[in-house]
Amino acid sequence: MINITFPDNSVRQYEAGVTPLEIAKSLSEGLARNVLSAKVNGKMWDAMRPVNEDATIQLFTWDDPEGKATFWHSSAHLMAEAIEALYKGVKFGIGPAVDAGFYYDIDTGDMTLTEADLVAIEKKMLELAREKQTFERVDVSKAEALKYFTEKGDEYKEELISELEDGTITYYKCGAFTDLCRGPHIPNTSFIKAVKLTSLAGAYWRGDEKRKQLTRVYGITFPKQKELDEYLVLLEEAKKRDHRKLGRELELYMFSDTVGKGLPIWLPKGTELRLRLQEYLTKIQKEYGYEQVITPHIGGKQLYVTSGHWDHYGEDSFRPITTPEEGEEYLLKPMNCPHHCMIFKWKPRSYKDLPFRCAEFGTVYRYEQSGELHGLTRVRSFTQDDAHIFCRPDQVKEEFIRVMEIIEIIFKALDFKNFEAQISLRDPNDHEKYVGTDENWAKAEAAIQEACAEKGLPAHVEYGEAAFYGPKLDFMVKDALGRKWQLGTIQVDYNLPERFDLTYIGADNEKHRPVMVHRAPFGSMERFVAVLLEHCAGEFPLWLAPDQVIILPVSEKYLDFAKNLQSYLKKSDIRALIDERNEKIGRKIRDAEMKKYPYMLIVGEKEEAENQVSVRKHGQVDLGTMPTDDFAAMIRKQVEEEQNKR
Ligand SMILES: [Zn+2]
Ligand SMILES: [Zn+2]
Hints:
Blueprint: E1 2-5, E2 11-14, H1 20-27, H2 29-34, E3 37-40, E4 43-46, E5 55-60, H3 65-86, E6 91-92, E7 97-98, E8 101-107, H4 115-130, E9 135-139, H5 142-152, H6 155-162, E10 170-174, E11 177-180, E12 194-204, E13 213-222, H7 225-241, H8 243-249, E14 253-254, E15 265-266, H9 268-287, E16 291-292, E17 298-300, H10 301-307, H11 309-313, E18 321-322, E19 329-332, H12 337-345, E20 356-365, E21 381-391, H13 396-413, E22 418-425, H14 438-455, E23 459-463, E24 472-478, E25 484-493, H15 496-499, E26 504-505, E27 511-512, E28 515-520, H16 525-536, E29 549-553, H17 559-571, E30 576-578, H18 585-594, E31 599-603, H19 605-610, E32 612-617, E33 621-627, H20 628-643
Parallel strand pairs: 1-5, 16-20, 22-23, 29-30, 29-31
Antiparallel strand pairs: 1-2, 3-4, 3-5, 6-8, 7-8, 8-13, 9-10, 10-11, 12-13, 14-15, 17-19, 18-19, 20-21, 21-28, 22-24, 24-25, 25-28, 26-27, 31-32, 32-33
């Protein structure tokens, strides 16, 4: 008999060789019907794979991220099986699960897969799924595995196997398809009831631009047709909200290959939006005791050698800039932290000066492969809403709480209803690989957890996910469609203060090391604006809208009045533009609705005579006629309310 320990720490005894599926059955029939995979002693495990020794176990269903990942990865096998059945001689790269669904990279030889092929593959997948094929796990030697794929003529799998250690290699056989894989997989293919192959893309083998470009087939599967239907509706809505599409339509930003790939250029309206956002953030940060700094976009190479960033970014990112001076080298800054360390070091600091909170909208440059670039979310230059807090170890908790408060205020002003966090702590079994004292780590780890609990921030803890230099908290936000976005981070750092020999004078008159906290709660302005665009579908809150008001003269005769009105509004700090086109008023209203301007002011003879405006709110709400002063006051009041939802 073996002892199986469940997540609630209860222990039950089973015969050795029991499978997670059988364990599930012993708990409830319902669970047994739904269990997809398990974690046994911390390792992902097939539901059908025997457990032979005492173990801790976690069972996963569709409701768990791990269960979904198993389901989708298994679907990648099923897709490969279908593709192999339909098109002879194709070769396979890798087929992992992703956030929503899965993909497989395929070498299709001379053939090109089209959208029509995807429909045929979907059909074949469902046909095979109904056969209730199991995933059979087989241990193989390296020689055997190499022989199998050499004979099959799949050089991609050969390459992968050649890098594996003998004795660790497993196959999974599903129907007629055998794949090199670590697993786990779902009990059988009949769980897969609905399939949609969503797109085709090119992908370099192993992400290397110098190697062959394979075809990446993306798909998603569900245990119920209804769930697929709902997903497709969501996908349609997501397409409408795609920040790349909205960014173009609303004229917010552009890219130019001449300027350089992945280097966003903010157009006037986008700049207006971003500056408003930065202004607002700056205002809140000032309230919270941050001091603004500005540092250059480059730094001497030695700065980054000292900080350690050279090891991390040097070879794999933008290369050093040289000057006519022999041996002089600069780097485009990949991080703002080293500059801020120098600011801390600039003068002696006392314990009474701490925390020192040093904030900068700092633009950083990191090389991303061109295939990885994506709208504003994956770029080569971005501006972090960065700050570094230099504090005493006993101040960490308070600082975390204060950062959370800032985030809460901003999210309220932007109508984000829920966000959550992941706390990344040390591997409890291996304290060796971390810098900093055990005592300080324990203090910081407790501080982060307590701060979350005190602020009521939903957070889950991941052990072993901390960086070697300190524990951290990552923020995730759910948008209007329920999608989760990874935003920024608060991170404790015991390393940089060491590397730069940062000190402060304590109450004991001795030198002490400050704790450095990095924080960029929104990550970057680029990423944050992308998330915001997709969240609000381009209908920004009034305080942030690049154009808050559009004035629609009913005919050319009232253009002068419209222009006077515009300059009056501008003086009241209200952003207004005029539709000067010679179009019918009905058309102008429709177009303004499309462009999502928060307010339309219709002006004609009566309005001019009485210095009034006819007001329509976006969403076809007629607010009637009012004096221009009243309108301006109404706008100012709304802006104020939106910014102060605390
Ligand atoms: Zn697999
Ligand atoms: Zn930093």
